[in-house]
Amino acid sequence: MTSPPLRVAFFGSPAFAVPVLDAIRAQFPVVLVVAQPDKPVGRGLKLTPPPVAAHAQALGLPLAQPKKLRGNAEFEATLRDSGAAVAVTCAYGKILPASLLAVPRYGFLNTHTSLLPAYRGAAPIQWALINGETVTGTTIMQTDPGMDTGPVLLQEALPIEPAWTSVELADALATQAARLIAAALERVDTLTPTPQDGALATHAPMLVKEDGFVRWTDSAAQIVNRSRGVAAWPQTTAFLNGARLKLTALTAAEGHGQPGEVLRVDETGMTVAAGAGAVRIGAVQPEARKAQPASAWAHAAGVTPGTRLDVWEPPTS
């Protein structure tokens, strides 16, 4: 007698989670999709569903968008009534209470974009790049009430290409996560949970705007790695006489000078000294203006070799 197919509830919100949902749908019945509530977006503050919610609506899948989970008996009943034997979370964005974790027979499986226990937290992709990692990966873990502390079920490494920003790395990890979660669900009865070693844990807190500010006293490699990590948001920001400048296409270059000092302006861009080495900037976007080649911006702004960009340092606590 053939056993019934595994019924899955899916919790996710951003575009990153859409291919993971699709990979699950290709093999298992998705009986409920749960996403964050709609939020105002753009200048007109139009109420807009997160990408997973919009995708579920387009597919005609049952959708719930609870404002809160803790103490929400109505939503808990919705999950129970869906008949889901297992739930999968992928960048959902809310902490799950213990009472909810106990509802599906197999609990909750989470797709996390790091090799846990490294980079627990909200921004593992970004911090792996900022810290100059050359390898990351995906972990499928059994969710517990902690922050990415549950036992590991499956794990696979992913080499990071030197030119990748957070955008390209997220795409590669979404593809990997989609494949791994499908494999985990196929073996949900037989997977052996392996506890994490908390002593080896590192953390990846949510980014803030200041994480995108250039620290010219850092080395050129550190500045370039930070720009890769913040490429999607908050992006790379420098200052000249207090005015904000968005910088893109940063690469390490030869050169020495005072941190923040403009060394060269030519057709390849603008080269600025770092704490060690130098950084070539391909494009600059001044506030309330369009991005332009760095050389064109420098000529128009009167920026020449010897000009020094503001040196910003994070405040000490």
UniProtKB/TrEMBL annotation:
Keywords: Protein biosynthesis, Transferase. (6S)-5,6,7,8-tetrahydrofolate binds at residues 114-117. SUPFAM superfamilies: FMT C-terminal domain-like, Formyltransferase. It comes from the Bacteria. Its EC number is 2.1.2.9. Gene3D superfamilies: 3.40.50.12230. Residues 7-184 form the Formyl transferase N-terminal domain. It catalyses: L-methionyl-tRNA(fMet) + (6R)-10-formyltetrahydrofolate = N-formyl-L-methionyl-tRNA(fMet) + (6S)-5,6,7,8-tetrahydrofolate + H(+). InterPro entries: Fmt, Formyl_trans_C, Formyl_transf_N, Formyl_transf_N_sf, Formyl_transferase-like_C_sf, Met-tRNA-FMT_C, Met-tRNA-FMT_N. GO terms for molecular function: methionyl-tRNA formyltransferase activity. Pfam families: Formyl_trans_C, Formyl_trans_N. It is an enzyme of class 2 (transferase). Residues 207-299 form the Formyl transferase C-terminal domain. Attaches a formyl group to the free amino group of methionyl-tRNA(fMet). The formyl group appears to play a dual role in the initiator identity of N-formylmethionyl-tRNA by promoting its recognition by IF2 and preventing the misappropriation of this tRNA by the elongation apparatus. Belongs to the Fmt family. This is Methionyl-tRNA formyltransferase. It comes from Deinococcus rufus.
